[in-house]
Amino acid sequence: MQRIIFASGNKGKVSEVRHILSDLNIKILSLNDIDFTGTIEEIGSTFEENAKLKAREIFHRYKIPAIADDSGLVVEQLNGKPGVHSARYAGNNTNDKLNNLKLLQELEKFPEPHSAKFVCAAVFYDGKNFHSANGEITGKIITSERGNNGFGYDPLFIPDGFNLTSAELSPEIKNSISHRYRAFSQLKKILAEFQYEY
Predict the structure, then answer these.
(1) Distance between CA 127 and CA 52 in Å, rounded?
(2) Given 23, 70, 126, 160, the catalytic residue
(3) Termini Cα distance of the chain
(4) Does the active-site annotation cover 23?
C-alpha cells in the first residue's frame, strides 16, 4: 500500500481526510505518526502557496509523497480578510474567541448581511509536480456565536441553504458540505490517477 504523508497533526482534520480518501489504496500518515516536531512557517500570500510550502517541506525531509492544505475565512466586506491570516487574525498568540471578537468588531461598521466563504486549497506533491484542488462554501457571518460543534469561525458562519451555524450542524452534515471536503474530493480524483513506487 502506498504511503502518503498528510502535513497535519490536527487529529480531527486527519480523520476527516482519511475518511474522504478511504477507498484509495493508500495509507495516510499524519505528522504525529512520523514524530514530526518542527514547524513550517506559512509565509505564502495565498492558501495554495501555504499548502505547497508544507507539502514541499515534508517531501524534502522524508522523501515520501505529501499532501497538505491551508484554509480560512474570506469576508467580502473586509476585502478578503482574514484570509490566510485566519488562524492568527487577532495576533500570533491568539485563540478562537479573540479571532471571532476581532472579526465582529471589524464588521460593526458594515450593514448586514456579511457575505463570506470558507476556502480550502489542497495540494499533492510527489517530488516533481504539484497537483492542486480548491473547495469553498459560501454563507454569511452573524453577530453572535451559536453552537458548540465546530471550531474557529464556525459559531459565526451560517452556510447558504441552512439556518444553523457550522457549529450547530452535526459533524456528519458539516463534513459533507465543508470546504475541506470539497477540496479533498477533487484531489482524490487526481490521486486515483497516480501509482507510485517508493
Answers:
(1) 11
(2) 70
(3) 10
(4) no
Cα gap 55→67, rounded to integer Å? 6
Q: Which domains, and CATH codes, for the chain?
A: 2-192 (3.90.950.10)
Which of 106, 110, 165, 109 is CA-nearest to residue 140?
A: 165
**Predicted TM-score of the model (pTM):** 0.91
Q: Which long-range contacts (CB under 8 A, 24 or more apart) does 38-41 make?
A: 40/7
pLDDT digits (tens, 9 = 90+) for 88-139: 999 988 999 999 999 999 999 999 999 999 999 999 999 999 999 999 999 9
Q: Provide the 8-state DSSP code for 124.
A: E
d(C-alpha 72, C-alpha 87), whole Å = 7
Q: Which amino acid does the sequence have at 163?
A: N
Question: Which amino acid is it at 110?
Answer: F
